[in-house]
Specification:
Radius of gyration: 18 Å
Distance between the termini: 48 Å
Helix content: 10-25%
Strand order of the largest sheet: 1-2-4-3
Number of strands: 13
Number of helices: 4
């Protein structure tokens, strides 16, 4: 692990893989070390927000002593996301995977996903745990506008766009479920550790 100071009250811990980053996040979330106020997981890092006056060296020693679990999924809250699988890129995903479009849908709905971390936009969760066959590259050219609720694939991840924005993921469907609402507590529906099941509705 690599430890880097971040701004005036942050300690960024770099890891060698997504699994290691998630294992570190789970270990820290199970009991925040003294002097740590918050955690922000990412693909290869975990950011620790420190309390005023906390000693970064002491926090680092605590983190280095942690035992990390090898599993990258948890038993968090389960969210079911209804999806109409009529995305513009569904035929392209079928082509990239060598599978019929209906098999792509079956694989996407056939496993439980887990939110690994958030990013890109408020409410956007990077979901892991899907079938290996669904790992596809991003689009060669990003769209200038992806509608809110679009469900996509990129690399090993799946995700749902929380609001209209540019994006380069392969779009396979859409949902009306709101990923981010400021009048909800917490505002983000998909948070690290939350489990997700995609459910097909309204087959086109």
């Amino acid at each position: 692990m690599r430890f880097l100071p971040c701004a005036d009250r942050g300690l960024l811990v770099g890891t060698g893989s997504l699994d290691e980053a998630l294992a570190l996040y789970r270990a820290l979330a199970a009991g925040l070390p003294p002097g740590v106020e918050d955690l922000v997981p990412a693909a290869r890092t975990v950011l620790l927000r420190l309390a005023p006056g906390a000693d970064p060296a002491r926090v680092e020693r605590h983190v280095r002593r942690l035992e990390l679990s090898g599993t990258s999924t948890g038993r968090g809250e389960l969210v079911r996301i209804p999806v109409v699988y009529d995305g513009e890129d569904l035929p392209r995903v079928a082509e990239l995977t060598g599978l019929p479009a209906r098999e792509v849908v079956r694989l996407h709905t056939g496993r439980e996903w887990t939110v690994a971390f958030g990013g890109f936009a408020p409410g956007f969760g990077y979901l892991i745990g899907g079938a290996p066959e669904l790992a596809v590259p991003r689009r060669a050219e990003s769209r200038t506008r992806v509608p809110a609720g679009a469900v996509g694939l990129a690399g090993e991840f799946s995700g749902v766009y929380p609001r209209p924005s540019p994006g380069g993921w392969q779009l396979i469907g859409r949902t009306r479920l709101e990923m981010w609402r400021e009048d909800r507590t917490p505002p983000a529906l998909l948070r690290p550790g939350v489990r997700v099941r995609f459910e097909e509705v309204g087959r086109p």
